[in-house]
Amino acid sequence: MITKGNQIEFRHLNYFIAVAEELHFRKAAERLFISQPGLSRQIKQMEVELGVTLFDRNNRNVVLTKAGAYLYKELNVSLKELEIILNNTKRLNDGIDGNLNFGYVGSAMQNIIPELLIEIRANYPNIHFSLKEMDNQKQVENLQVQEIDLGFVRLERVPNDLEIIPILEDTFSLVLPNNHWLNESNFKNISQLRNEPFIMFDASYSPNYYQKIMQIFDYYNFSPIISHKTVHSTSIYKLVEHNFGISIVPTALQTGYTKNVKFIELKNIPQRTILSAIWSKKNRNPILPKILENITKHHNILK
């Protein structure tokens, strides 16, 4: 029998998930290393126990019902949370305070991330952490399924199930090849560059950031000539260095890069870019509140 005291056993939820993902009983059975008839019997008994039909079956297709699709969606979230809880329990038993997974946009690595990791190591030496660079939208998606615990983004709004705090305001800077005619002494505003090609961060990488850059051009009443798009600042610098165009980046991104390019900070424009920390309201990682407290104490939190 599948039940004990009228309760469905944990392993049968895994059976259901396998069939829901494969939509094929034989493939699901092979994945689970059990027989196909045995799997079919267990799923049928699970449906009887719940009093619902989870799959519509015929000779050719297996399809989730509306009830089955709902159960699959909710189990994915719940079992992920359970896996996190069990992993945290094991780490605590092994003398490890916790594990924290970060997502970040590239510019956060210039100052925020290194500073934060140094502070974490000093205050919580038994925490393990992992880092993954990803665009804003990917961070939002990963936070919602708790693949990462904390993200650093350039967004002004996030979905209702996430929290966001702005932590650092930054200006923008022009990026020019060293041999460019424009410099600090003769620079007035970017309308001087209306006839030059610009290298931009791809809008797909961060639509919000792309719109912020375009607002700078709107401020001076011209549309830029866009010659190239990329998602990496190092690619931008390489293209600028070889005279494929010029660019605009957050000022923080010039840190550590001076080879054959020069920067002019755009101090006299209203546009600013804000780096924010975001996390899921549902995240119960026990170390996350401590890290958030650390961020609010030691970084330039904006009001």
Molecular structure report:
The radius of gyration is 26 Å and the shape is elongated. The chain has helices at 10-22, 25-32, 36-50, 66-93, 112-123, 136-144, 207-219, 233-241, 288-298, and strands at residues 3-4, 7-8, 55-57, 62-64, 98-104, 127-133, 150-153, 162-170, 172-177, 197-201, 225-230, 246-250, 261-266, 273-280. The chain folds into three domains: 3-88, Winged helix-like DNA-binding domain superfamily/Winged helix DNA-binding domain (Arc Repressor Mutant, subunit A); 96-166 and 275-298, D-Maltodextrin-Binding Protein, domain 2, CATH 3.40.190; 172-271, 3-Layer(aba) Sandwich (D-Maltodextrin-Binding Protein, domain 2), CATH 3.40.190.10. A hairpin with a 2-residue loop joins strand 1 and strand 2. The chain is α/β, with parallel strands linked by helices. The protein is built from nine helices and 14 strands. Strands 6-5-7-14-8 form a five-stranded mixed beta sheet, sandwiched between helices. 28% of the residues are buried. Residues 1-6 have low confidence and may be disordered. Belongs to the LysR transcriptional regulatory family. It holds the Pfam family LysR_substrate.
